Amino acid sequence: MDFEGQKLAEALSMAIVVVAAVLGFLYGYVRQDFAAMMWVFASGTAVAGLVGVPDWPMYNKHPVRFLPPKAKEGQRGGGSSGKGGGSGKRKKAASWSTLWGMF
């Protein structure tokens, strides 16, 4: 789901929930039945969930284009030849003590 699709999904979901709340209130008021009002509202919320949660194709009309990855210094073609093109520094291996140090 792209950013425009998220905006559309939120707008549709909010509109459906508001309409369901108003219709549920009116229906419950006319019938003088709180349970009927809650059923109408719950049904509208379920419809809003079905419209907004799955990644429908209508939410993917504006995909985000990312830049290609940048080549590291000293490397050409993106491959590793094993001929020492790096600076000689190695990354510190992750361990429980380094993770614990974050807290």
From TrEMBL:
Membrane-spanning parts: 12-30, 36-56
Keywords from the named record: Endoplasmic reticulum, Membrane, Transmembrane, Transmembrane helix
**Electron transport as UniProt keyword:** no
Superkingdom, natural source:
Eukaryota
Q: Where is the composition biased (Gly residues)?
A: 76-87
Q: Which family does it belong to?
A: Belongs to the SPCS1 family.
The protein's job, in short, is: Component of the signal peptidase complex (SPC) which catalyzes the cleavage of N-terminal signal sequences from nascent proteins as they are translocated into the lumen of the endoplasmic reticulum. Dispensable for SPC enzymatic activity.
Protein name stated in the entry: Signal peptidase complex subunit 1
Organism in which the protein naturally occurs: Chlorella vulgaris (Green alga)
